[in-house]
Amino acid sequence: MKRPIRARERWPLWMERYLKRLEAQGRAPKTVESRRSMLEKFFEYTRAAKVWGPERLSVGLVRSYLLHRRELPNRRGKK
Q: Which residue of 2, 7, 23, 44 could cross-link 52, Cys pair, CB 3.0 to 4.6 Å?
């Protein structure tokens, strides 16, 4: 019998499935790593909002995250 997935494990499981699909599609390793990095930032934001998996994701939270990212400086210190 499979054990139930705890709520805090849902994002990593979802991300690994997604990244494996990208690899199966023949995406470049740098692309896969870039997506991993972007997703980790998004998941960090969702965890702060106490959203532990995709089933509780909302349009409002995604919109809020996009606004948050727009205000953060990039690697070169620019918005």
A: 7
pTM of the model: 0.76
The count of other CB atoms within 10 Å of the CB of residue 21 is: 11
Q: Of 44, 58, 49, which Cα lies nearest the Cα of 12?
A: 44
Select from 16, 15, 78 the least CA-distant residue to 43: 15
d(CA 58, CA 60): 5
Dist. CA 63–CA 31, nearest whole Å: 24
DSSP of 56-70: G--HHHHHHHHHHHH
pLDDT tens for residues 39-71? 999 999 999 999 988 888 999 999 999 999 988
Q: Tokens representing 29?
A: 């390793």
Q: How far apart are CA 62 and CA 6, in angstroms?
A: 23
